[in-house]
Specification:
Length: about 675
């Protein structure tokens, strides 16, 4: 994109900073950045039947609900107490917050609320945010430090923090994690509203970090214990043009693992540029790789790029769940070994799904290859979306692929990272649909709605998508143009529509070819499906009213995992379009689904059920149930089988659920 909300407002903010002398004069922040630029979420409006209602639930229900939970659980009270101390008042309640990172929950919801405001003006929400921002400002120490537990009681902060600033940062204090989320929220709020009240708080803290941390002998040499400040600093650099923020992001990445004392959990045993596998705490890892992508884009550092490309190959080829979830182990909320992908005990933190989409979006923007969008889409429609209930008020922390009846979403958590991450991700989703590079427009995701963008020659275009995706693969894209113009529309042909379950071959479809081919037409004329990095590129002299018609057949596909994945051996999973399916207790006889067998010759029928779970496409057929007689002999019975989209499970109470089904043998009960 040549112009963005950022660049339009940069001159205004530079004036502001020049006037207040808080920032040096800024270079052009766009001089080096991602070669593929997303069409910003502010320019994309979804009007479809799938995402638009979910974004509306997030706006009208989840955001106020989550702010309410922050108030109720004392997260705002922590800022109030810190502010009182800074005003010189004596406070009697010096109890530390539940976690030293509780401050990040209001930041994350503020970020989501900001994205939401950009799409849908809401004066009441706008005023609430301003009040909250004033509260945050009042809890910031004069030099920019912002960490309520220490300000409330500097001598006795949360036990994960030391009695001095930063001392336990590499372990558990999360001081830089808090800062990172503040920066992300500040840039979103500024981008959405044009206001600088939160941005100024962020800049003040970022300036403190720039003075405190760095390679000089009079600076502290620490790497962040929980990554995200790297991404936050990159965003702050883009918003303000202050290159010190970019330098600090790079410093934090380069410092990591550069001294003894690191470990796999924190991705700090060796420097990130030398790492080749996705390891340790999965959310930390996803944020690190995303931060490295940002710095690589902004500096042109090819070593970072090589490292995250290699790590991605490992992750997608050996550590990715079929739902797009990552982080197999409960212990350490971590990646497992290669092919260690248990189903019942899968951890798959909701935050890790969000991090996986941040990372894949960034790799896409670096390379322009649709394989990253394939992973992003798989994660989005499955592992990520399962993180929130259909009504928007309950959340999953782990997202297992099998349930013995013990899993259900919670209204909130003591450690509430996941609700905030869902809340902030969803309203930013329109920004993942389209991208641009020079005179090429990339259509990455599918949903009814519009996108407004400008070509390099200044020609304004409006793209209008009409589709029932993800339930139906017919997509129409109409172009409205000011004048005839030659450019390329690159349409992504998803991997699932061309017999590639995931890039790298960890999973494949049982049927080697779908019966119907993908078709693409412009004004009724067939365009050959010649793929270039997962896209069909249509270069022509476009005129107003031209229409692209894409048809992605959506048969029910049986997915098979690599033999190396022990948990899935002899099993199949069901996919239709981008959606993974599961069998859940209410839809199958006697509520048992973990003992179902789906023999290879089964045929399945898909049907849309408007009154089930807010309207979903279900899959039905027959299954074989194997039970044991009293004498120990096996008894096989036929019974009807029904599956629902994985994201919609656990909205009808606790019970069994399964994604992988035995093909010939009986799964252990
Ligand atoms: Zn989380």
């Amino acid at each position: 994109m040549k112009t963005s909300v950022f660049s339009q407002r940069i001159s205004a903010i530079l004036f502001l900073f020049a006037a207040t002398s808080t920032l040096p004069a800024a270079p052009n922040p766009a001089s080096h950045d991602y070669p593929f630029q997303p069409v910003p979420f502010t320019a994309v409006h979804l009007t479809d039947g799938f995402w638009a209602p979910r974004l509306e639930t997030n706006r009208l229900t989840t955001i106020p609900y989550a702010f309410g939970k922050c108030e109720e659980s004392g997260r705002m009270y922590n800022f109030e107490r810190a502010a009182a101390v800074l005003r010189g008042e004596k406070i009697t309640d010096k109890k530390p917050p539940g976690y030293p990172f509780d401050d990040t929950d209001p930041y994350k919801i503020l970020e989501g609320a900001s994205y939401s405001l950009a799409v849908q003006p809401d004066p009441k929400l706008d005023a609430y945010l301003d009040k909250l921002i004033a509260l945050i400002a009042s809890a910031q120490e004069p030099d920019g430090y912002l960490y309520t537990t220490r300000t409330i009681d500097p001598q006795h902060p949360h036990e994960w923090s030391a009695s001095q600033r930063w001392v336990k940062e590499q372990e558990l204090s999360h001081e830089l994690y808090n800062a990172g989320h503040l920066f992300e929220a500040a840039v979103a709020h500024y981008q959405a509203t044009g206001k600088t009240n939160l941005l100024q708080i962020a800049v003040k803290e970022a300036n403190l970090l720039c003075t405190t941390f760095g390679p000089a002998t009079n600076q502290l040499h620490f790497w962040p214990g929980h990554e995200i400040v790297e991404m936050g600093l990159a965003k702050l650099y883009r918003a303000t043009g202050n290159v010190r923020y970019l330098d600090l992001a790079k410093y934090f990445i380069d410092d990591r693992g550069s001294r003894p004392g690191g470990d796999d959990y924190h991705q700090s045993r060796i420097p990130p540029v030398e790492q080749t596998e996705a390891i340790g705490h999965a959310v930390r890892a996803g944020y690190l790789y995303s931060g490295m992508a940002d710095v690589a884009a902004l500096t042109g550092d090819t070593n970072y790029l090589r490292a995250i490309d290699t790590i991605w190959e490992n992750c997608v080829g050996k550590k990715l769940y079929i739902t797009g979830g990552i982080g197999a182990r409960h212990a350490g909320e971590a990646f497992g070994n290669n092919y260690e992908l248990p189903n019942l005990s899968a951890y798959n933190e909701t935050c890790a799904a969000v991090a996986n989409d941040y990372w894949n979006q960034r790799l896409y923007l670096l390379h322009g290859d649709a394989k990253y969008v394939d992973v992003l889409e798989r994660t989005l429609y499955n592992s990520l979306l399962a993180g929130v209930s259909l009504d928007g008020t309950k959340f999953f922390y782990p997202n297992p692929l099998e349930s013995d009846g013990n899993y259900e979403r919670s209204p909130w958590f003591g450690c509430a990272c996941c609700p905030g991450n869902i809340t902030r991700f969803l309203p930013s989703l329109p920004g993942y649909f389209y991208a641009q590079k020079n005179d090429s427009v990339f259509v990455n995701l599918f949903a009814s709605g519009t996108a407004d963008l400008k070509l390099d020659d200044g020609c304004a275009i409006k793209l209008t998508q009409t589709t029932r995706y993800p339930w139906d693969g017919a997509v129409k894209i109409t172009l409205a143009l000011e004048k005839k113009s030659r450019f390329t529309v690159a349409v992504r042909i998803p991997g699932w529509a061309r017999n590639e379950a995931v890039p790298g071959g960890l999973y494949h479809f049982a049927e080697s070819a779908t019966s119907e081919p993908v078709t693409l037409k412009v004004n009724g004329q067939i365009i050959p499906i010649k793929l270039d990095h997962g896209y069909v590129r249509i270069n022509r002299l476009w005129k107003n009213g031209d229409m692209i018609a894409l048809d992605l057949p959506m048969p029910v596909q049986r997915v098979i995992a690599s033999e190396k994945v022990r948990a899935d051996r002899g099993r199949i999973a069901l996919q239709r379009g981008p959606i993974m399916y599961c069998a859940e207790w209410p839809d199958n006889p006697i509520g048992k689904v973990r003992n179902l067998v789906l023999p290879g010759d089964q045929t399945f029928k898909a049907a849309f059920e408007p009154s089930l779970l807010n309207g979903i496409e279900t899959i039905s057929g027959n299954s074989l149930v194997v039970t044991k007689n009293a004498d120990g002999s096996a008894m096989k019975t036929d019974q009807p089988f029904k599956a629902i989209p994985y994201f919609a499970w656990a909205n009808r109470g606790k019970g069994e659920m399964a994604v992988w089904f035995a093909e010939t043998s009986v799964p252990s009960p």
